[in-house]
Amino acid sequence: MTTRATPDAGNPVPNPAVAGPATGGSGGADGAVPWWRDAVCYEIYPRAFADSDGDGVGDLAGATARLEYLRTLGVDAVWITPFYPSPLADGGYDIADHTGVAPDLGGPADFVALVERAHALGIKVLVDLVPNHTSDLHPWFREAAAAEPGSRARERYVFRPGRGEHGELPPNDWQSAFGGPAWTRVDEPDGSPGEWYLHLHAPQQPDLNWRNGEVVADFERILKHWLDRGVDGFRVDVAHTLFKADGLPDAGPGQHQDIHRNHLMPYYDQEELHPLFRDWRALLDSHPAPAGAVAPGERVMVAEAGIFAPERLARYVSPGEMQQTFNFAFLEAPWDGAAMRDVVEESVTAMQAVGAPVTWVLSSHDAVRPVTRYGGGQAGERRARAAALLMLALPGAAYVYQGEELGLPQVELPDDRLRDPLWERSGHRERGRDGCRVPLPWEGDAAPYGFSTAAPEDCWFPQPTDWAGLTARAQEDDGDSMFALYRRALRLRRDHPASDAALKLDGPDSGEWFGFERGAGLRCVVNFGSEPLPLENDAEVLLSSAPLEGRTIPQDTTVWMIFKEYHQ
Ligand code: GLC
Question: What is the CA radius of gyration of the chain?
């Protein structure tokens, strides 16, 4: 057994930073590699990140004050999840004003200050664009609910008469992603039971009608608003659901549960998305940039699209559309060498066909924390470390969700603190996503660990009492910590830019281990199997997710190495 790919694995792979433009339609100015192709972007969920005013809720000024920490970590950009005015029926993804700032998070000046500070530190800023739905308290929806069937106000949303003799049945069989029907009936202005409106998520999140010109124009206004405030890009929420198939046909069984490789859902992946994304891209590429922001042609859009067929997903990042799309198949893959290898190979192949990088992701505000997902306890932590080094060696971009770099586990919160609509809508069968949205522990021995000056029970969510060893401060001082691993990996990644050449994975068919060349001489090997894997004599280990056993890579360990011939 060998960790070495081929006898000539030591041949230096051309470095795209010096070898010329990346392939595909998304090259940067002057043929330079665009910043986002290999960027590491850090997701901030602001209410759980850092609280500056002692009300127990994280806010924009708190985030600004902690940007220095992110520079130390070494990220290229931050993505801030919705900080807009919202009744919080879905953690801020129910927006009442897409160009405002929620009063508990600060004011417009706090956002400008955050962007300025980030840019001064060399960190780019992405914000969330949530085009599929508004809050039911958005002025448009209030107007629509009070208006007549067929009115202009109702045309901005998806209102339909019900089925059944008296319209008492929903217009079709579509289900909400949070459980229950995707339709809610309104009372007409005269008090009689009336039409139904569509909400693919909570009832407080009515879906917009993307075939309506006012909706299209309003989102252009929203994009320009944030571009004028210096943002460098947008993460586009549920980008695959904006258009619904003509006639709103029934979807059949397995909805939302069965999206893997199934692009036939009548509310997923419709053709009309692509011209819309091309229009947005043209807007991003042409709208003037204020001082400090990237040039118009360097702005980025990243799609959150729950599409699992790689060739369908690749369409979102084909030339002239978005630049990135999260690779959720990687996040959802079990800790298994064969499964991981398949996902990596399929994703890279599909994205290379359109000249786009893969956008790797291991966690988010919607997913169970990796440490817990991979088994919990020490085994889960060991695998999460190995997965992080795998992700960060792969060519492409990576998104890191706050607390991932601290190895935080999923938290089991008390029932009476749960906020996720999934909890109520599932009849208390699914606890939802709150367990990964617990405030970050920054320093100190007891909750709230520097997150806030509020009492622990008054914070956004209560933190566990055993997190003293997981605080950012404790980990910054510990060379073996998860934080230290991420920081070193991010630094080495920059020193060893990935090659744009085809990625070739090697290793046994069983998937017990696999390896690949990142480019510029760096080789990454992950050992999933129980047999220790011997290192080549001339391999010099740069970074390892767990201690080596002599000259072997133990189980559930990823190693980054170079070979002696690379030394110049
Ligand atoms: C996206 C968000 C998620 C939200 C949903 C509806 O999936 O990431 O948090 O619940 O969209 O907006």
Answer: 24
In a domain, 191, yes or no: yes
Domain CATH code at residue 538: 2.60.40
Same domain? For 540 and 459 the reply is no
* Torsional sign, CA 235, 398, 419, 305: positive
In a shared domain, residues 17 and 125: no
Cα(93) to centroid of ligand 1, in Å?
6
User: Does the active-site annotation cover 76?
Assistant: no
Amino acid at 270: Q
- As for how many domains the chain has, the answer is 3
Q: Is 356 in the pocket of ligand 1 (CB under 6 A)?
A: no
Q: Whose CA is nearest to atom 12 of ligand 1?
A: 93
446 in the same domain as 468: yes
* Claim to verify: residue 486 and residue 517 sit in the same structural domain: no
Range of the domain at 63: 35-130+362-490
Report the half-sphere exposure of 98 (CA within 13 A, side-chain side): 23
Active site residue 237: yes
Q: Which residues pair with 541 in a beta bridge?
A: 561
- Ligand 1, atom 9: nearest CA belongs to which residue? 366
405 CB within 6 A, ligand 1: no
Nearest CA to ligand 1 atom 4: 93
Q: DSSP characters for 2-53? A: -S--STTTTSPPPPHHHH-PPSSTT--GGGPPPGGGG-EEEEE-GGGT--SS
Kindly name the residue from 94, 128, 237, 269 that is annotated as catalytic: 237
Measuring from atom 2 of ligand 1, which residue has the nearest CA?
Answer: 237
Residue by residue, pLDDT tens for the chain (568 residues) are 456 544 333 333 223 332 333 333 344 446 688 999 999 999 999 999 999 999 999 999 999 999 999 999 999 999 999 999 999 999 999 999 999 999 999 999 999 999 999 999 999 999 999 999 999 999 999 999 999 999 999 999 999 999 999 999 999 999 999 999 999 999 998 999 999 999 999 999 999 999 999 999 999 999 999 999 999 999 999 999 999 999 999 998 878 765 556 557 899 999 999 999 999 999 999 999 999 999 999 999 999 998 888 899 999 999 999 999 999 999 999 999 999 999 999 999 999 999 999 999 999 999 999 999 999 999 999 999 999 999 999 999 999 999 999 999 999 999 999 999 999 999 999 999 999 999 999 999 999 999 999 999 999 999 999 999 999 999 999 999 999 999 999 999 999 999 877 899 999 999 999 999 998 789 999 999 999 999 998 999 999 999 999 999 999 999 999 997 655 4
Residue 100 is given by DSSP the state: S
Q: Give a yes or no: residue 300 inside a domain.
A: no
Q: Is 289 inside a domain boundary?
A: no
Ligand 1 lined by 237 (C-beta under 6 Å): yes
List the CATH number of the domain containing 171.
3.90.400.10
158/206 Cα distance (integer angstroms): 8
CA–CA gap between residue 444 and residue 446 (Å, rounded): 6
Single pTM value for the model: 0.94
Do both 190 and 74 map to the same domain? no
Atom of ligand 1 nearest to the CA of 178: 10
Position in ligand 1 atom list of the atom nearest CA 93: 12
